[in-house]
Design brief:
It is a single chain. The chain starts with a strand and ends in a 6-residue tail after the last helix. The chain contains 6 helices and 16 strands. It is an alpha+beta fold and about 280 residues long. The longest helix is centred in the last third of the chain and has 18 residues. The chain folds into 2 domains: about 100 residues, Api92-like domains (Alpha-Beta Plaits); about 170 residues, no CATH class.
Length: about 280
């Protein structure tokens, strides 16, 4: 079974340089070049691994023993086994470890769609929940902005509507079959408090897993900016986290659009509608 793992090493900068050289020797003895991707920043080392069999703890545990003042944080996903986990290694020992089942799509993980250009620009990141027959709600991001969205579909062909927020807890814009632009909704319609809290929670969880913002404090995003620069990726207002972006590129191949989707067949029309209307606006 293929395991995707990310190992991030942090600590004293001079030690990071020595650790990088040591890990290069240790990893080259165990893995093929295409199984390990390095995208280090000025303040951390980061390794993306796509390997068969098991999590490569021994290599990193050995390096951790040799550099006891550095912290090794590992995260992994085994889709085939339906498991994910995380661990922290210090001085060769695991100090923290968690392991969970990957949530089924009908449970804690909402269906999502992420599309990125080959140079790293976010085209659309969208997560959805179906709340009723013919009604979907969710959260959308493009490179320069974001919005809560609500999509409605009636029984007749072409009977669809798309609502979007514009900075506040109200539906401020609407599309009713006049592509491609959304129009101002006059007056705006306030979103019920309970609905807004639910969508806000969905949005925050999605962002925590997938997105970093260029407007965040620079000390918080320095590593992401450095990884983007090293990889030649374009930085926008909203950006896919570099570890996920590198995985998407490895799976897609050079020069191809990067797409990840867990949408069901019943959700795809919402994504297509958002791409054709809201996501096209600058």
């Amino acid at each position: 079974m293929i395991i995707h793992a990310t190992v991030t090493v942090t600590g004293d900068k001079p030690m990071l340089g020595a650790c990088e050289a040591r890990l290069r020797r240790l990893l080259s003895a165990q893995f093929l070049k295409n199984e390990v991707t390095e995208h280090h920043g000025a303040q951390a080392l980061c390794y993306d691994l796509k390997v068969e069999g098991g999590i490569p703890f021994p290599v990193f545990a050995q390096a951790s023993q040799e550099f006891p003042d550095l912290e090794f944080a590992a995260e992994w996903v085994n889709v085939a086994a339906g498991e994910k986990g995380a661990a922290t290694i210090v001085n060769g020992r695991v100090s923290k470890q968690t392991q969970d089942r990957i949530a089924a799509r009908s449970g804690g993980e909402h269906p999502l769609y992420v599309e990125v250009t080959a140079n790293g620009r976010l085209v659309l990141a969208l997560t959805l929940l179906r709340v009723a027959q013919g009604e979907w709600r969710g959260y959308a991001l493009a490179s320069g902005r974001d919005a809560l969205v609500r999509a409605l579909r009636g029984p007749r062909p072409g009977d669809v509507e798309l609502y979007a927020t514009e900075g506040g807890p109200e539906w401020a814009r609407v599309w009713r079959g006049k592509p491609p632009a959304l129009e101002a909704l006059t007056p705006p319609v306030a979103i019920d408090d309970a609905v807004f809290r639910e969508l806000d929670q969905v949005a925050r969880g999605f962002v925590a897993d997938w997105i970093w913002f260029a407007s965040a404090p620079q000390h918080e995003i320095a590593i992401e900016r450095d990884r983007y620069a090293r990889s030649g990726f374009e930085v926008g207002t909203a950006n896919v986290r570099s570890a996920r972006l590198h995985r998407l590129r490895a799976e897609a191949g050079d020069g191809k659009p990067l797409v990840h989707s867990t949408l069901g067949a019943e959700d795809v029309w919402v994504k297509d509608l958002v791409l054709a209307t809201w996501a096209r606006e600058t």
